[in-house]
Amino acid sequence: MNERESQKKSPWTFFILVFALSVPFWVLDVLYPMNLPLDNLPVTDIGATFTPLAAALILVYREGEPRGVRRFLARAFDYQRITKKTWYIPILFLMPLLYVLTYGAMRLAGMPVPTEYHIPVTVPLIFLAFFFAAAGEEMGYTGYATDPLQARYGALGAALIMGPIHAVWHWPSMIMIGQTVGLFALGTLLTIGFRILTVWLYNNAGCSVFAAILFHAVTNTGRSVFPGGRATMELGDAAIAYTLVILAAVIVALLWDRETLTRFRYSQTVT
Hints:
The protein has helices at about 5-10, 10-30, 45-50, 50-65, 65-75, 90-110, 125-175, 180-205, 210-225, 230-235, 240-255. By secondary structure, it is mostly helical. The protein has one domain. α2 (about 10-30) packs across α7 and α8 (about 180-205) runs antiparallel to α9 (about 210-225). It is globular.
């Protein structure tokens, strides 16, 4: 996206519109609470997760023309932007690595996690479902809001603005599934950390929205197929799992430059 296109976009209008479009789903969940078997998520999350995409499409159409909408939608599969293929390693394996470390730490701490584990045969279907759900969110947060925000506030600033907003947007769902205060607080910090990691990967992967969607989908799939499921991973208010992700985000924020998150701060040699 060029600078002129970034300046035309209105991220703050986007955030307001996302919340406005989500309200009916939240109200419906209060009136008719029903949960999915997958991660005990509210059924209404199926609709709410696509409100960022809907908000972005409305604004893209208003700001341009139908052809602009088609170009915007095409970014869901803009994998050709990922010219540095090594970035597929963190996109695909960072979160699984953190989940493996979580499992090991939980075992060492004596927490009641399964000692035997078999990867579910439904993993491809779970991943596919989460890929579409991730597209619903990331087409808005990454595809629409990230570039104009980082053009004004830098990459880390953009992530620190979007992270809390994205977290608050998840609060109604978190409340409805009955999360504890500790899990609620750590989940909020987790979402902020996740946004830092997403912006970091997005920028280093050639500003590929597909990279952000893929990272998001892998993250949610790994959580769902964690030994014992999400409920086991969140034992002890998910202190181990969520803290590891937050620490990963802190490391990225400290080691990469704040403006773009693409330049390693300590790569220059001293002469």
